[in-house]
Design a protein that fits this description.
Shape: elongated
Strand content: 25-35%
Structural class: mainly beta
Oligomer: single chain
Keywords: Signal
Strand order of the largest sheet: 1-2-3-4-5-7-8
Number of helices: 3
Length: 197
């Protein structure tokens, strides 16, 4: 047995240092699986968000028409407002608007998965240019996401001004107070379009 160990020592020296000295896997870096529940992530500065759904979006890039682009999309809730975090993978996400706005921006639907599986132990939210990290959030727990604030309903369109009845004076013959000028107050043809003498 001792001879075998001595014979293996020269072989171990040939292995790269990275292979010989691998650290033990970190249990907190294991993929997060919350099933049908949401995942809560928080940063050191008090920022927190809930990941409610995970999906993918496939769209055509006009610069590369033969290879469609695929984005990873997370539907998140921040301060009771819907938003998204999206990117080519879950390690380089960018912040986005609501899922509907993201779909309208890229012209493709998000295909949501049924369960929340395979999330990373920490989320990095990058700036739009990808140069700076805006937030580093760590997974805290699975739970129920807070209710999302209802978006405001748009104001109903204004009704058009009523059309004047036949025989009623035209708008041009009304005074600023809304009263009609008496008939004959203006000479005939004074309101006719065209050059005036």
């Amino acid at each position: 047995m001792r001879g075998l160990r001595l014979a293996l020592l020269p072989l171990l020296a040939l292995l790269p240092a990275a292979v010989r000295a691998q650290p033990a896997p970190d249990p907190s870096a294991a993929p997060v699986a919350c099933g049908a529940r949401a995942a809560r992530y928080a940063a050191a500065k008090g920022l927190s968000l809930w990941v409610a759904r995970r999906g993918t979006m496939t769209f055509e890039n006009p610069l590369r028409p033969l290879s469609p682009e695929v984005l990873q999309v997370l539907q998140v809730t921040i301060r009771n407002k819907p938003a998204t975090a999206y990117g080519p993978d879950l390690d380089s996400l960018r912040r986005g608007a609501s899922p509907a706005a993201l779909e309208a921006q890229y012209g493709a639907p998000v295909k949501w998965s049924g369960e929340l599986e395979g999330l990373p132990a920490s989320l990095r939210i990058l700036a739009d240019d990808g140069a700076a990290v805006l937030a580093q959030l760590r997974f805290e727990a699975c739970g129920d996401a807070p209710k999302v604030a209802e978006p405001r309903k748009p104001a109903p369109p204004r009704k058009p001004a009523p059309k004047p009845k036949e025989g009623a004076p035209a708008e041009a013959t009304r005074t600023p107070s809304g009263r009609a000028l008496p008939q004959g107050a203006l000479p005939e043809g004074a309101l006719a379009p065209g050059p005036r003498p």
